[in-house]
Design brief:
The protein is of the alpha/beta class and 288 residues long. It has one domain: Aldolase class I (TIM Barrel, Alpha-Beta Barrel). It contains 11 helices and 10 strands. The strands form 2 sheets. An 8-stranded mixed sheet has the order 1-2-5-6-7-8-9-10, sandwiched between helices. Strands 3-4 form a two-stranded parallel sheet. The longest helix is centred in the middle third of the chain and has 14 residues. The chain is globular. It starts with 15 loop residues before the first helix and ends with a helix. The relative contact order is 0.13.
């Protein structure tokens, strides 16, 4: 196994444009998963105005062991009603034409936060109806009404990440369910077949190639359009450890296997994240 951190994970030095983006987000008290999850692409993406907004606060009600986002179980965290408006103002000021919105998981809310997703989509479309929106949603505990609330707001892409293979769920995502996540993706396609649906797997958690291929087949069976595959980086000693750094050849092999299975678009590589180059990946599907 290869456990040496590859050189590609060295972050770019933060420049003036990235600093301006950070300052604007701070001014409007807007969260991004880029910052909260300590993404290795952060400086590069902020410099190029590629960011993933994070709604429903910055505290998650689940304890996934791979994730750096703050956790707080058994606490009612509330909702900031002004959050969608603040995000839309940042979108306008940055002149964004493709907007990615994700959230923490909010099991304390009856709809899992679906209404806040819909309000955020609406607020951005009120600026410019031609802005493309990609939302990365939690599983909403499989609640169909919550899925319909988000779908009815008409984003261009709905993503929901399975994150890892079935066997590792208990160790890595103890409060999630592999079958529920697959069902969420399948139901989205059933409700709105023309909607682009996306998911992601992080590698290096101890999965086998056979398990990854099985997960890709499961995703294909849901009607999935886009899959991203990236390298897991442990945020800290208290998080799940990296078991292996996957080499570029293996990332290419997984992409080739996934395409052979019938998946339409696959973005695969060490630095790939669910929302990384989201607009470019979406265009690859649309113009294929």
């Amino acid at each position: 196994m290869n456990n040496k951190l590859p050189s590609c994970f060295k972050q770019e030095i933060i420049d003036d444009e990235a600093l301006k983006t950070r300052a604007l987000l701070s001014e409007f008290h807007v969260n991004t998963v880029c910052q909260q999850a300590r993404c290795p692409n952060l400086n590069h993406c902020f410099k190029n105005l590629r960011l993933a907004f994070m709604i429903l606060g910055n505290t998650c009600t689940r304890n996934c062991r791979f994730c750096a986002v703050r956790k707080s179980e058994n606490v009612s965290l509330g909702i900031n009603d002004d959050e969608p408006h603040r995000i839309s103002r940042v979108v306008k000021m940055l002149g964004l034409k493709y907007v990615v919105v994700t959230s923490v998981t909010r099991d304390d809310l009856s709809d899992g936060g679906a209404a806040q997703f819909a309000k955020t989509i609406e607020a951005v479309h009120n600026i410019d109806k031609n802005i493309k929106i990609e939302v990365l949603i939690p599983d909403f505990k499989g609640d169909i009404s919550s899925l319909k609330t988000v779908i009815a707001a008409y984003p261009e892409v709905i993503a929901h990440n399975i994150e890892t293979v079935r066997r590792l769920y208990k160790a890595v995502r103890p409060q999630a369910d592999y079958r529920v996540s697959l069902d969420v993706l399948r139901r989205i396609k059933e409700i709105y077949p023309s909607l682009t649906v996306k998911s992601s797997i992080i590698l290096g958690l101890g999965e086998t190639e056979e398990e990854v291929v099985c997960a890709m087949q499961d995703l294909k069976n849901t009607g999935l359009d886009i899959l991203t595959l990236g390298q897991y980086l442990s945020p800290g000693a208290q998080h799940y450890p990296v078991k292996e750094f996957i080499n570029n050849q293996q990332f290419k092999r997984y992409k080739d296997i996934g395409l052979a299975l019938g998946l339409k678009v696959i973005s695969s590589g060490p630095l790939i994240r669910s929302s990384y180059q989201a607009e470019e990946v979406y265009k690859e599907l649309i113009y294929a």
